[in-house]
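Hey, I was hoping to borrow your eyes for a little while. I'm sending you its amino acid sequence along with the C-alpha coordinates. Take your time with it, there's no hurry, and the full record follows here.
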Amino acid sequence: MSTTTVVHLLRHGEVHNPDGILYGRLPEFHLSDNGSEMAGLAAEWFSGRDIAALYSSPLDRAEETAQAVADEFGVAIRLDDRLIEAGNTFQGMTLSRRSVRDPRVLRRVYNPFRPSWGEPYSQVVARMVDIIKVVRKEAWGREAVCVSHQLPIWMARRVAEKKRLWHRPDRRQCNLASVTSLTFEDQKLVSVGYAEPAAVLYRKQGPLVPGA
Protein backbone atom coordinates (compact mmCIF):
# COMPACT_ATOMS: atom_id res chain seq x y z
CA MET A 1 0.00 0.00 0.00
CA SER A 2 1.13 3.56 -0.71
CA THR A 3 1.95 6.12 1.97
CA THR A 4 0.17 9.50 1.94
CA THR A 5 2.14 12.60 2.95
CA VAL A 6 0.87 16.19 2.75
CA VAL A 7 3.10 19.27 2.59
CA HIS A 8 1.18 22.50 3.23
CA LEU A 9 2.66 25.76 1.94
CA LEU A 10 1.35 28.55 4.16
CA ARG A 11 1.75 32.16 3.11
CA HIS A 12 2.42 34.64 5.93
CA GLY A 13 -0.24 37.04 7.17
CA GLU A 14 -0.62 40.74 6.47
CA VAL A 15 2.42 42.91 7.19
CA HIS A 16 2.48 46.31 8.91
CA ASN A 17 3.61 48.46 5.98
CA PRO A 18 1.90 51.87 6.04
CA ASP A 19 4.30 53.34 3.48
CA GLY A 20 3.61 50.67 0.87
CA ILE A 21 7.26 49.69 0.46
CA LEU A 22 8.15 46.62 -1.56
CA TYR A 23 9.91 45.06 1.41
CA GLY A 24 11.19 41.86 -0.19
CA ARG A 25 13.88 40.41 2.05
CA LEU A 26 14.31 43.50 4.23
CA PRO A 27 14.33 42.87 8.00
CA GLU A 28 11.97 44.32 10.59
CA PHE A 29 8.76 43.98 8.61
CA HIS A 30 6.42 42.35 11.10
CA LEU A 31 2.81 41.17 11.02
CA SER A 32 0.15 43.80 11.54
CA ASP A 33 -2.56 43.18 14.13
CA ASN A 34 -4.73 41.93 11.29
CA GLY A 35 -1.88 39.72 10.12
CA SER A 36 -1.54 38.16 13.56
CA GLU A 37 -5.26 37.33 13.48
CA MET A 38 -4.75 35.76 10.06
CA ALA A 39 -1.93 33.61 11.41
CA GLY A 40 -4.18 32.48 14.25
CA LEU A 41 -6.97 31.50 11.85
CA ALA A 42 -4.50 29.58 9.70
CA ALA A 43 -3.25 27.71 12.77
CA GLU A 44 -6.83 26.84 13.70
CA TRP A 45 -7.41 25.55 10.17
CA PHE A 46 -4.69 22.95 10.76
CA SER A 47 -6.28 21.86 14.04
CA GLY A 48 -6.87 18.12 14.14
CA ARG A 49 -4.31 17.41 11.43
CA ASP A 50 -1.28 15.23 12.03
CA ILE A 51 1.40 17.93 11.75
CA ALA A 52 4.84 16.35 12.15
CA ALA A 53 7.13 19.18 10.99
CA LEU A 54 7.08 22.97 10.78
CA TYR A 55 9.48 24.95 8.61
CA SER A 56 9.62 28.68 7.94
CA SER A 57 11.33 31.33 5.89
CA PRO A 58 13.72 33.26 8.18
CA LEU A 59 11.98 36.59 7.49
CA ASP A 60 10.13 38.10 10.45
CA ARG A 61 6.64 37.99 8.94
CA ALA A 62 6.96 34.30 8.09
CA GLU A 63 8.44 33.25 11.43
CA GLU A 64 5.70 35.14 13.28
CA THR A 65 3.07 33.32 11.20
CA ALA A 66 4.78 30.00 11.89
CA GLN A 67 4.76 30.74 15.62
CA ALA A 68 0.96 30.57 15.63
CA VAL A 69 1.16 27.05 14.19
CA ALA A 70 3.93 26.11 16.63
CA ASP A 71 1.75 27.23 19.55
CA GLU A 72 -1.18 25.21 18.21
CA PHE A 73 0.77 21.97 17.84
CA GLY A 74 3.72 22.30 20.20
CA VAL A 75 6.23 21.71 17.40
CA ALA A 76 9.51 23.54 16.90
CA ILE A 77 10.02 25.95 14.01
CA ARG A 78 12.94 25.20 11.71
CA LEU A 79 14.13 28.21 9.71
CA ASP A 80 15.26 27.48 6.18
CA ASP A 81 16.58 29.94 3.59
CA ARG A 82 15.06 27.91 0.76
CA LEU A 83 11.64 29.24 1.81
CA ILE A 84 12.70 32.90 1.69
CA GLU A 85 11.05 35.56 -0.47
CA ALA A 86 12.27 35.84 -4.06
CA GLY A 87 15.06 38.34 -4.61
CA ASN A 88 13.84 41.59 -6.18
CA THR A 89 15.83 44.61 -7.38
CA PHE A 90 12.87 46.88 -6.55
CA GLN A 91 13.23 46.00 -2.86
CA GLY A 92 12.95 49.10 -0.70
CA MET A 93 11.12 51.11 -3.36
CA THR A 94 7.54 52.37 -3.37
CA LEU A 95 5.99 51.53 -6.75
CA SER A 96 2.94 53.10 -8.35
CA ARG A 97 1.42 53.43 -11.82
CA ARG A 98 3.78 56.33 -12.49
CA SER A 99 6.73 54.04 -11.82
CA VAL A 100 6.51 52.70 -15.39
CA ARG A 101 8.10 55.97 -16.52
CA ASP A 102 10.92 55.79 -13.99
CA PRO A 103 14.23 54.94 -15.73
CA ARG A 104 15.29 52.93 -12.67
CA VAL A 105 12.27 50.70 -13.23
CA LEU A 106 12.30 50.60 -17.03
CA ARG A 107 15.85 49.32 -17.30
CA ARG A 108 14.96 46.31 -15.14
CA VAL A 109 11.77 45.11 -16.84
CA TYR A 110 13.13 44.15 -20.25
CA ASN A 111 12.48 40.42 -19.76
CA PRO A 112 9.28 39.42 -17.93
CA PHE A 113 9.88 35.73 -18.64
CA ARG A 114 13.01 35.38 -16.47
CA PRO A 115 12.17 37.85 -14.78
CA SER A 116 14.86 40.47 -15.33
CA TRP A 117 14.00 42.42 -12.15
CA GLY A 118 14.65 39.64 -9.69
CA GLU A 119 15.56 36.07 -8.86
CA PRO A 120 14.93 33.79 -11.87
CA TYR A 121 11.74 31.78 -11.64
CA SER A 122 13.72 28.61 -12.33
CA GLN A 123 15.94 29.32 -9.32
CA VAL A 124 12.95 29.87 -7.05
CA VAL A 125 11.46 26.58 -8.25
CA ALA A 126 14.71 24.68 -7.65
CA ARG A 127 14.99 25.72 -4.01
CA MET A 128 11.29 25.21 -3.29
CA VAL A 129 11.28 21.72 -4.82
CA ASP A 130 14.40 20.91 -2.82
CA ILE A 131 12.92 21.91 0.54
CA ILE A 132 9.59 20.22 -0.23
CA LYS A 133 11.42 16.94 -0.83
CA VAL A 134 13.29 17.31 2.46
CA VAL A 135 10.11 18.09 4.40
CA ARG A 136 8.15 15.30 2.72
CA LYS A 137 10.80 12.81 3.78
CA GLU A 138 10.77 14.04 7.37
CA ALA A 139 6.97 14.01 7.62
CA TRP A 140 6.57 10.71 5.74
CA GLY A 141 3.06 9.36 6.25
CA ARG A 142 1.97 12.49 8.11
CA GLU A 143 1.65 16.23 7.34
CA ALA A 144 3.99 19.24 7.43
CA VAL A 145 3.71 23.02 7.18
CA CYS A 146 6.17 25.30 5.38
CA VAL A 147 5.63 29.05 5.85
CA SER A 148 6.80 31.05 2.87
CA HIS A 149 5.86 33.93 0.57
CA GLN A 150 3.55 34.53 -2.35
CA LEU A 151 5.91 34.10 -5.29
CA PRO A 152 7.84 31.04 -4.01
CA ILE A 153 4.57 29.29 -3.16
CA TRP A 154 3.05 30.22 -6.51
CA MET A 155 6.13 28.93 -8.33
CA ALA A 156 5.91 25.62 -6.47
CA ARG A 157 2.26 25.33 -7.46
CA ARG A 158 2.94 26.24 -11.10
CA VAL A 159 5.55 23.52 -11.46
CA ALA A 160 3.38 21.01 -9.55
CA GLU A 161 0.56 21.65 -12.02
CA LYS A 162 2.98 21.48 -14.95
CA LYS A 163 2.31 25.06 -16.03
CA ARG A 164 4.75 27.57 -17.48
CA LEU A 165 6.58 29.64 -14.90
CA TRP A 166 6.05 33.12 -16.34
CA HIS A 167 2.65 34.54 -15.47
CA ARG A 168 0.69 37.68 -14.60
CA PRO A 169 1.40 38.57 -10.94
CA ASP A 170 -2.12 39.95 -10.52
CA ARG A 171 -3.56 36.51 -11.23
CA ARG A 172 -1.74 34.55 -8.54
CA GLN A 173 -4.04 32.50 -6.33
CA CYS A 174 -2.05 32.86 -3.13
CA ASN A 175 -3.72 35.27 -0.76
CA LEU A 176 -2.48 36.24 2.69
CA ALA A 177 -2.39 33.31 5.16
CA SER A 178 -3.61 30.99 2.41
CA VAL A 179 -2.69 27.31 2.31
CA THR A 180 -1.52 25.48 -0.82
CA SER A 181 -1.51 21.76 -0.06
CA LEU A 182 0.57 19.20 -1.96
CA THR A 183 -0.57 15.62 -1.41
CA PHE A 184 1.80 12.78 -2.24
CA GLU A 185 1.24 9.05 -2.55
CA ASP A 186 4.71 7.77 -1.75
CA GLN A 187 6.85 10.18 -3.83
CA LYS A 188 4.21 10.92 -6.47
CA LEU A 189 2.26 14.17 -6.31
CA VAL A 190 -1.42 13.27 -6.66
CA SER A 191 -3.25 16.53 -5.89
CA VAL A 192 -2.88 20.24 -5.24
CA GLY A 193 -5.36 21.95 -2.93
CA TYR A 194 -5.93 25.58 -1.96
CA ALA A 195 -7.70 27.16 1.02
CA GLU A 196 -8.07 30.63 2.55
CA PRO A 197 -8.54 30.18 6.31
CA ALA A 198 -8.34 33.94 6.93
CA ALA A 199 -10.71 35.06 4.15
CA VAL A 200 -13.04 36.67 6.68
CA LEU A 201 -10.28 39.19 7.46
CA TYR A 202 -9.47 40.21 3.89
CA ARG A 203 -11.91 43.08 4.07
CA LYS A 204 -9.48 44.71 6.54
CA GLN A 205 -6.58 44.59 4.11
CA GLY A 206 -4.94 47.79 3.01
CA PRO A 207 -3.09 48.17 -0.31
CA LEU A 208 -1.23 44.98 -1.18
CA VAL A 209 2.41 44.77 -2.09
CA PRO A 210 2.85 42.37 -5.04
CA GLY A 211 5.10 39.38 -4.54
CA ALA A 212 5.24 39.81 -0.78
Summary: The chain has one domain: 4-204. The radius of gyration is 17 Å.
